[in-house]
Design brief:
mainly alpha; globular; about 0% strand; about 100 residues
Length: about 100
C-alpha cells in the first residue's frame, strides 16, 4: 500500500481528512518531539486506527507531508505518485492538480 493510500484509507475509516487529524494533533501539542506511542494510542483510542495507519499519520505529524522518493515512479505496490502527500481529502477539487 502506498503512503498516500494509507492516508486515503484513514479518511474512509474516520470520516476525517488527514489535514483535520493533523490539526487536531497540533491542538493536542503533538509534533516532532512527541513519542510515537503517545500518538498511536491517541489515534487508536479516539479514532479506531490500527498501528499501520497510525504510523502514516505519525510521520505526517512529526515530519510534515513530504516523504522520501524511494517508491515514487516505481511500479510496486508501495508506489507513490509524488514525494508530497495530499492531506486535504480524497474528494478535494485540487487533488488531481497536485
Amino acid at each position: 500500500m502506498s503512503f498516500q493510500a494509507y492516508l486515503d484509507a484513514i479518511e474512509v475509516k474516520t470520516g476525517r481528512t488527514p489535514a483535520a487529524l493533523l490539526a487536531e494533533a497540533h491542538e493536542r501539542g503533538y509534533g516532532a518531539d512527541t513519542r510515537t506511542a503517545e500518538i498511536v494510542l491517541w489515534l487508536k483510542d479516539d479514532h479506531g486506527l490500527g498501528r499501520g495507519h497510525a504510523m502514516a499519520l505519525v510521520h505526517v505529524i512529526r515530519n510534515g507531508p513530504v516523504i522520501g522518493d524511494k517508491h515514487v515512479g516505481s511500479t510496486g505496490a508501495h508506489r507513490d505518485d509524488s514525494t508530497v502527500l495530499y492531506l486535504q481529502g480524497r474528494a478535494h477539487p485540487e487533488r488531481d492538480a497536485t
